[in-house]
Amino acid sequence: MSRKIHTIQDVVDWNLCVGCGACVAMCTHNHGTTLEDIGSVGIRPKFTGDYCKHCSDCLSICPGYSIDASEVRDTELETAIENLLVGTYHALYEGHSADPYIRYTGSSGGVLTSLAAYCLEQEGMDFVLHTAMNPDEPWKNRTVISRSREELIARAGSRYCTSSPCEWLDRIENNDKPCVFIGKPCDVAALTKARRVRPELDRKVGLAMSFFCAGTPCSDAVMELANTLGADTQDISSVHFRGQGWPGKFRVNRGPESEPITNTYIDTWKKLSRRRPFRCHICPDGMGQLSDIVSGDAWNRYTGTGENPGLSHVIVRTAHGREILKKAEDAGYLNLLTIEPDDIIEAQGLVLRRTMAFGRIVGMKLTGAPTTEFKNFHLLQAWLKNNPSTMLISIFGTLKRMALRGLYRKGTSYYR
User: Fold this and answer.
1) Taking 80 as the threshold, does the pLDDT of residue 413 lie above it?
2) Which of 50, 73, 283, 361 has the fewest C-beta atoms under 10 angstroms from its C-beta?
3) How far is Cα 205 from Cα 184, in angstroms, rounded to an integer?
């Protein structure tokens, strides 16, 4: 049995798929590839014919196959600042939306929502492609297009569940005007790869934004949490993971006659994070290296009182992102203050995952399993910042996990 990646099916079978949907949107052969949400696993491509099982074309845009940090679409890369743990950037900020309601509604300050609104209202971009709650199954996500501030606000907030916004990249490519894309770091990585081979898509991406990401739990985990809290699946009208204050609570609504069922953010993430794909545990790109702008919680400023209106850290990765952000701030959409890399490092546990990634990948390779290729993330240098015992744990902890879950065998599900 080959232990190399030859096709997208291999990416899926070796548990390296991130469910971004790019392979469906960018397929040029029209052989019926679709996406399905496997409740205990995540969103995955489904191949209805034999052709796709032998085609390797999609590997060129697959973030489960490889991600190269140097592919960032930056016209002034030579002036960017390089930090081993934060990555390449042009500017770092701490701030929030200038609109109090967006700040309150968003997960950690509403920066991305306000930036998206600015692009629609002031830059003439046509729509925002992003992720929102699925109204038919509220514990799941769906890909959506928003064309107004009102739609953006209605869909604001984190969605801690599997999502596939790249499935509609062709809608950006075929649109008349530039558009905004918001997705997980791995989604933006797929978009970046697709832009390199599809010039028209490249021209139509007005801004690519992401958020700090620690992984995507499967939809079954969200449904089971709601059920555990006392919500019957048939009665659920909406599920919100955060917002209405910082960090906000997990809220399950069951209609206008019932009070929402709530759970703390910390307990919710503790439970959901157990059901993340193994691929998320080896990812060093939780802070969106390939985005124009990426934002997430400024946890080092959180007081823990529950009275915080929300505060974000913002990493500007490209010159284009810097230009858009400055204009949005000047137009009164954002309130921002300059910060240093140490502020990001202090606030984000994602930095720890970057320092562990090299050892975890080594652990995978020792079992003979293929891994995602992460280029130009300087993972060895980051790993060497650990003490020797931590370095060994990153390797042998992964070996143990691979053995117990059977992940060294092709086709073994990583949710067990």
Assistant:
1) no
2) 50
3) 16
